[in-house]
Description:
This protein has helices at residues 33-46, 64-72, 88-103, 109-122, 135-145; strands at 2-3, 11-17, 52-54, 60-62, 77-82, 170-173, 176-180, 206-209. It is α/β, with parallel strands linked by helices. The chain has three domains: 2-103, Conserved hypothetical protein from pyrococcus furiosus pfu- 392566-001, ParB domain; 109-148, no CATH class; 163-225, no CATH class. It has a five-stranded mixed β-sheet with strand order 1-2-5-3-4. Strands 6-7-8 form a three-stranded mixed β-sheet, with no helix packed on it. A hairpin with a 2-residue loop joins strand 6 (170-173) and strand 7 (176-180). It starts with a strand and ends in a 16-residue tail after the last strand.
Amino acid sequence: MKRSDDRTGRLEIRDRPISALKPYAGNPRTHSKKQVRQIAESLKKFGWTNPVLIDDDDGIIAGHGRVAAAKLLELKSVPTIRLGTMTEAEKRAYIIADNRLAELAGWDEQLLAIELQFLLDVEVDFDVELTGFETADIDRILGGAGDLAEPERVPEPDPEAPVVSRPGDLWEIGHHRILCGDARDRTSYGRPDQPHRGGRAHPAGECCLAGGVRARTPRLPRWAA
Length: 225
């Protein structure tokens, strides 16, 4: 593969022995063992789609993770592109930019969910984690896609309907109690006729609501305002 470039002239992809390549000791980008394994799985599935960038001395400018993955796969050589016109400052800046600029991109999670769902549907045995997203991430993204849909419309209360409950009413439903009140009001948790544990309503028993409730056969409150 060859191409022309106004700055660097002709660039060629050439295989170079891994043993000849020199990782940059000052590379601030780190690669965990887990990520290197993920890169290795990607290389096995998709092949080399992104050559390693090197300088005139076979120093690695970009592709440290891919080289580490190639070693894990016990490969002897990797495709490289030699960038021989960069100054030392330019090389160091590019090493940082090559990683940082990709981090600044975002995700359209609706479109991402569509793409991930396609991969799940197209082949039963396709490993979707080859995308770099783990199963938990995929579940979250697919689960959150529905949250982006138009929310369900809740009808406004009919002002002409009879009032069944008012703030301050305490309802008894079996062993449970429901208070019509404001959950932000501390006094809602300290009613003298509302048992409380630890100074607050117990989630499995009493429940404080911020709105009124309606029922077909309501039991009247034990006390009335």
